[in-house]
């Protein structure tokens, strides 16, 4: 923040309730790096993490003697109890005279970095993260600052954790500065590269809406569409992720300007290879016994193209309910089997069940248990 007079803050901040505005009376003029400290916990506390909802923890949280390094240590705890209260803890840090751009000595992250991380759906809470981010932006936080350990700025964190709500806020007033900024930890890719490589569909859509360049290449010569994980390389039972990958890749390719010619290898397509030819080349046919990924036994029920991902996919009815579907994905049926016994896998993960299998999947004959309950002592030899 460049001025200490709260009356000179933007009008939208002046209208906010007083409890939302951190006191500016004793705020330092320059940011510092706070030393690392352990997270404080109540005496004889039953848990290993700080819970801001617990009365004993609240006493510590609101105690003026609790230091900024200790509060940073609390924020570092990656648990819902803490991350859902990021706005409350962040406000307490600011109330202790912390500069808006101060850093945590252990991670070199600022409050804005932590806010973007805390927006992650599930562990975090986007609404709480937005509240803290708005407060920090109103106080003049520098959105271009990076952590020295990850070289990521706030936009990179928001893209990595798929928080479009924060991306919109960050780009509202600083779009030219950070929109296409690169990060060395991601092969000098942009936020769009980071989001694409992590299948963050919401973040990618938001970045494109705000003008992110889908034709920027990283240090490996890859555009964002090139770093989308290949569904064919995904582990088993990842049909939903494969659908996201397909949509994400096409979205990024469609966003590339027509004047920018990408190499044809950007989107490999094996859709035109007939399934029967693929099976023949593998020495397989429908109905045969196969082993999936060297672990799960089943019957080959399908081979061909799908709507959830490009390329050829093998559909297998597993012997045991260890799958993810009943032969259908996204409302489209490819084969029929009982629920939880269907699975789709890339061709490379399928082998004939008659081939040598690892000991972990070779079945041992089941022998019936002998019932000795009816035996009497007459059959025994007395000694």
Automatic annotation (TrEMBL):
Xref: Gene3D superfamilies: Ankyrin repeat-containing domain (1.25.40.20), CAP Gly-rich-like domain (2.30.30.190)
Record's keyword annotation contains Repeat: yes
Pfam family, one: CAP_GLY
The CAP-Gly domain, residue ranges: 304-346
SUPFAM superfamilies: Ankyrin repeat (SSF48403), Cap-Gly domain (SSF74924)
GO MF entries: microtubule plus-end binding
Protein name: CAP-Gly domain containing linker protein 3
Species: Chelydra serpentina (Snapping turtle)
Gene name of this polypeptide: CLIP3
């Amino acid at each position: 923040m460049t001025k200490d007079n709260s009356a000179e803050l933007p009008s939208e901040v002046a209208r906010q309730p007083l409890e939302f505005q951190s006191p500016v009376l004793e705020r330092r003029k320059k940011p510092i790096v706070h030393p690392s400290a352990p997270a404080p916990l109540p005496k004889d506390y039953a848990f290993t993490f700080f819970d801001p909802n617990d009365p004993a923890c609240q006493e510590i949280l609101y105690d003026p003697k609790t230091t900024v390094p200790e509060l940073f240590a609390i924020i570092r705890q990656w648990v819902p109890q803490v991350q859902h209260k990021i706005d409350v803890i962040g406000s307490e840090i600011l109330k202790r005279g912390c500069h808006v751009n101060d850093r945590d000595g252990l991670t070199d992250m600022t409050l804005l970095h932590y806010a973007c991380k805390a927006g992650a759906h599930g562990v975090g809470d986007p609404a709480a993260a937005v509240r803290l981010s708005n407060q920090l932006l109103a106080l003049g936080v520098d959105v271009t600052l990076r952590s020295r350990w990850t070289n990521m700025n706030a936009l990179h964190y928001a893209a990595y954790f798929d928080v479009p709500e924060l991306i919109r806020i960050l780009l509202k007033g600083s779009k030219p500065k950070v929109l296409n900024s690169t990060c060395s930890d991601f092969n000098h890719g942009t936020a769009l590269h980071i989001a694409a490589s992590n299948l963050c569909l919401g973040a990618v859509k938001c970045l494109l809406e705000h003008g992110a360049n889908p034709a920027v290449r990283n240090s490996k010569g890859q555009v964002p569409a090139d770093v989308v994980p290949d569904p064919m390389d995904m582990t088993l039972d990842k049909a939903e992720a494969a659908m996201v990958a397909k949509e994400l890749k096409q979205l990024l390719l469609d966003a590339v300007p027509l004047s920018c010619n990408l190499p044809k290898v950007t989107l490999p397509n094996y859709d035109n290879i007939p399934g029967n030819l693929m099976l023949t080349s593998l020495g397989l046919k429908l109905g045969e016994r196969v082993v999936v990924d060297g672990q799960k036994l089943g019957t080959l029920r399908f081979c061909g193209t799908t709507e959830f991902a490009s390329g050829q996919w093998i559909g297998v009815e597993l012997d045991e309910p260890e799958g993810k579907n009943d032969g259908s994905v996204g409302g489209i049926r490819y084969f029929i089997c009982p629920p939880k016994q269907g699975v789709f896998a890339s061709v490379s993960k399928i082998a004939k069940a008659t081939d040598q299998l690892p000991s972990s999947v070779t079945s041992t004959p089941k022998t019936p248990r002998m019932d000795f309950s009816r035996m009497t002592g007459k059959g025994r030899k007395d000694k």
